[in-house]
Specification:
mainly alpha; AhpD-like; single chain; 11 helices; globular
Length: 196
């Protein structure tokens, strides 16, 4: 059971309007946003930050951003965000082979070296203590420019917030996210956990 009950999507009309963004991303408004709107300034600021972070300004694709989010969420153990990230990666055109083998991104041929560097960055930046070091910096700069690295860290940081929000809140997971979680992550033990 969630720590705080989500409110109706009609509770705050400005949040409802902004949340249309998630209909494209996920196909539904996440329960996390419906909970945040108990303080509408938080829900609105979160949605605007999400839109800014997920905007494409360089070569970091929408699909790669969602895979970065998955790696970050997997590192922190947030099952809610793992399912949301893999669903969004699917909806934004990630290759089927990458979706099916996201757990093996370090070695699977569906991932190139630039993607591996980005996903390793996500893993290192999501750990406590932080594991970003000079070796990883060098690998990133072999494939990405500084603006693209900022975009990646924006995703990692956004999901740091979401991982803590949703795991602490025990946010109820939506059916569509469950479906994607089971399809792509279930073979490695993904389950709803506390997000019932």
């Amino acid at each position: 059971m969630p720590l705080v009950t989500p409110l109706s999507a009609d509770h705050d009309l400005e949040t409802k309007e902004l949340a249309k963004f998630f209909n494209e991303t996920l196909g539904f408004c996440p329960n996390s946003v419906l909970t945040m709107q108990r303080r509408p300034a938080i829900s609105k600021a979160f949605i605007n930050l999400n839109k800014a972070v997920m905007a494409n300004e360089g070569r970091v694709t929408s699909a790669l951003k969602r895979m970065i989010a998955w790696v970050s969420s997997n590192a922190t153990g947030c099952r809610y965000c793992q399912a949301h990230a893999i669903r969004a990666a699917e909806r934004y055109g990630a290759e089927q082979e990458q979706l099916d083998n996201i757990w093996e991104y370090k070695t699977h041929p569906a991932f190139n070296e630039a993607e591996r560097a980005a996903l390793d960055f996500s893993l290192a930046a999501s750990q406590v203590p932080n594991a970003v070091d000079e070796t990883l910096k060098k690998r990133l700069y072999e494939h990405w420019n500084e603006g693209e690295i900022v975009e990646m860290l924006g995703v990692i940081s956004l999901f740091g917030y979401l991982n803590r929000w949703n795991d602490s809140m025990g946010t109820s997971i939506e059916d569509g996210a469950v479906e994607s979680g089971e399809q792509y992550l279930g073979k490695h033990g993904w389950e709803k956990g506390k997000h019932v």
